[in-house]
Design brief:
Elements: H1 8-21, E1 32-37, E2 42-46, E3 51-54, E4 57-59, H2 67-72, E5 79-91, H3 99-102, E6 104-111, H4 127-131, H5 140-147, E7 155-162, E8 176-178, H6 193-211, H7 216-247, H8 266-269, H9 273-289, H10 311-314
Parallel strand pairs: 4-8
Antiparallel strand pairs: 1-2, 2-3, 5-6, 5-7
Length: about 325
């Protein structure tokens, strides 16, 4: 939902507790050194020599995925932006705010000062340094007042790195797959990185349920057909939006020269991936098994990001 915000740490806690309640075998601090698949299964090799076997391998190991090249045979060159972003969230009682029903304040500040930064995700930063980026803005004093209230340890600074879409997410044997940022990392300009990862997981679970234990490769391939085009369009659009914002002439008098609208298309934010997966699974499976092309119904047919039908405009709200 476009108007639902969840603190990532809270989401991780929820996922962790749910996995525990389901009896999932969780292992922390374990290094994976290899991947394998056969006609009957797939698995991983651990640093201590153990071999873990399963019906399939689902690699969700992020933008720096070690599994991606092994599973897909592709390792796309990182899309270097020359930019980074400060991010912070903290309790709303420190300052006024409305996020999370008034519980949290969140701010983000893309910038070009990337000296000394690496691609490590969490790099603590000083919010006062971020305020240097906005001190000359017309509203610089008001903005600095917010940044100055950011509690120590609540601000991070990381590089903006992405990659263009892969041609496949599924291994040749059909028993291994990459999802989330391992498959389609994207910058935060559309706010869809985590959302699309969650959609991946939901659709994958449904496809494995419907394909059954006896046909795991079909389930993984149907999942890819249902997801790949949709996510690739969003991924490319997020990169394009980021580049547009950094190319903009913010000193121009013309409003058209400044990107002042983040797209909120209905087809992205109102999509029910669970309902869609159940409805489309058999049609996709039949197309795959009979060698026919499947035309996705959850993305623009021409592959061009369509932002004409905006949820805020249709609701009469400012965007």
């Amino acid at each position: 939902m476009h108007d639902t915000f969840v603190q990532r740490s809270g989401l991780l806690d929820l996922l962790y507790q749910t996995a525990k309640d389901c009896g999932v075998d969780l292992r922390f601090g374990v290094k994976v050194t290899g991947y394998w698949e056969s006609e009957d299964g797939a698995g991983i090799r651990l640093e201590n020599g153990d071999k873990v076997a399963a019906d399939c391998v689902i690699a969700a190991d992020g933008i720096h995925s070690r599994a991606r090249d092994i599973i897909t045979g592709e390792e796309p060159v990182p899309h270097e932006t020359g930019a980074a972003i400060y991010r912070s969230h903290f309790a709303a009682d420190i300052i006024a705010g409305t996020l999370g029903k008034g519980k949290y304040v969140f701010w983000a500040l893309p910038h070009r000062d990337v000296e000394g930064l690496s691609e490590v995700w969490l790099q603590p930063a000083d919010a006062l340094r971020a305020s240097e980026c906005v001190k000359d803005w017309p509203i610089g004093k008001k903005t600095t007042a917010i940044l100055s209230r950011t509690p120590p340890g609540s601000c991070w600074n990381h590089l903006l790195v992405s990659r263009r879409p892969l041609s496949t997410w599924v291994s040749k044997g059909g028993r291994m797959v990459v999802i989330g940022d391992a498959a389609h990392p994207m910058p935060p300009n559309l706010g869809q990185g985590a959302n699309q990862a969650i959609e991946d997981a939901a659709v994958l679970a449904i496809c494995l349920e419907l394909s059954g234990k006896g046909n795991i490769p079909l389930g993984l391939r149907v999942m890819q057909e249902l997801r790949h085009k949709r996510v690739s369009v969003i991924q490319n659009a997020a990169i394009d939006e980021m580049e547009k914002s950094f190319r903009a002439n913010w000193d121009a008098d013309q409003t058209e020269a400044k990107p002042n609208h983040v797209p909120h298309p209905v087809w992205v934010l109102r999509h029910d991936c669970i309902k869609h997966a159940y409805e489309e699974f058999q049609r996709v499976a039949d197309s795959y098994l009979n060698g026919r092309e499947y035309i996705p119904t959850n993305a623009p047919v021409d592959g061009v990001f369509d932002c004409g039908d905006d949820i805020f405009k249709s609701a009469g709200k400012p965007s």
